[in-house]
Write a structure and sequence with these properties.
This protein is mainly α. It has 2 domains: 76 residues, no CATH class; 191 residues, Hypothetical protein af1432, CATH 1.10.3210.10. 67% of the residues lie in helices and 0% in strands. The chain has 18 helices and no strands. Helix 2 runs antiparallel to helix 6 and helix 6 packs parallel to helix 8.
């Protein structure tokens, strides 16, 4: 279960790092978590999958049946499994085959991530933009991990597609007021603006909410820390590297979604000069070799979710 210890003030060296308050619950956060539980519960199918796989004696056939009973979830799971991010050599045509290829936990995590994405109101431009961003970050994170031989990809994908769901939750709670807060400027300063306004930030809100949905660690912890590589390092190499992979995918998604007109070489240098690339030992030559493949993953992911919206 998600649990983080407070950061002592003497270790809180960065202006935008987590304060001791940000690792604790507080009255405002408790009230808002309760409101969110009433506003929009996590999809029932996803809750059943999480509960089922939490038992040691669950049957793979039961997992398959739960997914197949939801026609939309089945279709979207197979579409994503067959996307460029997964790099399957042949077409995956059934949930049974998907389980064989990805493992039961891999398919469960993908289905849970898709269910989380279904919570976005795509009629709202901000929500749709946020949904597309999270979807692209998930696809890039998985693609990069697969290309670089990184283990534990299913946890990574779940963390990536849910990493900014706290912003969606704040949009649900505060609507245009929160939208205007987002519009004020640089994302890296957003957490501080949120803490100043609401006494918590979107990363902490998401971590607590994901934990309430019974999505197990490392997902809640990684989401809580996805803006704080330094704090992630103190919790061990698994958390540190998962956070770094999400930060890297996030920076790459920003490049392809919002800086298409910038020079590719300049964008590559910015990414490899960042802390996430340094943690992951990603150099300029390696990223250059993957650049257009990552661009293709971005384009396909956006197209895929636009197709889902039109169905």
């Amino acid at each position: 279960m998600f649990e983080l210890q407070p950061v002592s003030p003497k270790n809180n060296e960065l202006d935008n790092s987590y304060s001791s308050l940000a690792f604790q619950t507080n009255a405002r956060l408790d009230v808002d978590l309760a409101r969110l539980g009433e506003l929009r519960p996590f999809p029932e199918t996803a809750q059943r999958l999480i509960a089922m796989t939490g038992s040691e004696d669950y049957k793979v056939a039961d997992l398959r049946q739960v997914i197949e009973n939801d026609a939309i979830l089945t279709a979207r799971t197979l579409e994503i499994v067959n996307s460029a991010a997964y790099g399957m050599r042949g077409r995956c045509s059934s949930i049974t085959l998907a389980i064989r290829l990805l493992g039961s936990n891999g398919v469960r995590d993908l289905a849970v991530a898709i269910a989380g994405m279904e919570m976005y109101d795509t009629a709202d431009l901000r929500a749709r933009t946020l949904r597309d961003h999270n979807a692209v970050v998930g696809s890039i994170a998985r693609f990069m991990a697969r290309k670089r031989g990184v283990p534990n990809i299913s946890d990574l994908y779940t963390c990536a597609v849910l990493h900014d769901i706290g912003q969606l939750l704040l949009l649900q709670l505060y609507g245009e007021e929160y939208g205007q807060l987002v519009d004020l400027g640089v994302e890296e300063n957003l957490c501080q603006r949120e803490r100043d306004r609401y006494e918590y930030d979107h990363a902490l809100l998401a971590a607590h909410m994901v934990s309430k949905w019974r999505i197990p660690d490392p997902v809640p912890t990684v989401i809580a820390l996805h803006h704080d590589l330094r704090r992630a390092r103190s919790l061990g190499s698994e958390i540190h590297h998962l956070v770094a992979q999400i930060r890297l995918a996030d920076e790459l998604a920003e490049s392809f979604l919002y800086h298409q007109d910038d020079d590719d070489e300049d964008l590559i240098r910015v990414v490899v000069g960042g802390d996430a690339a340094k943690v992951l030992a990603l150099g300029e030559e390696e990223l250059t070799g993957l650049w257009y493949d990552i661009q293709a993953v971005t384009i396909q992911t956006k197209y895929l979710w636009a197709q889902f919206d039109s169905q």
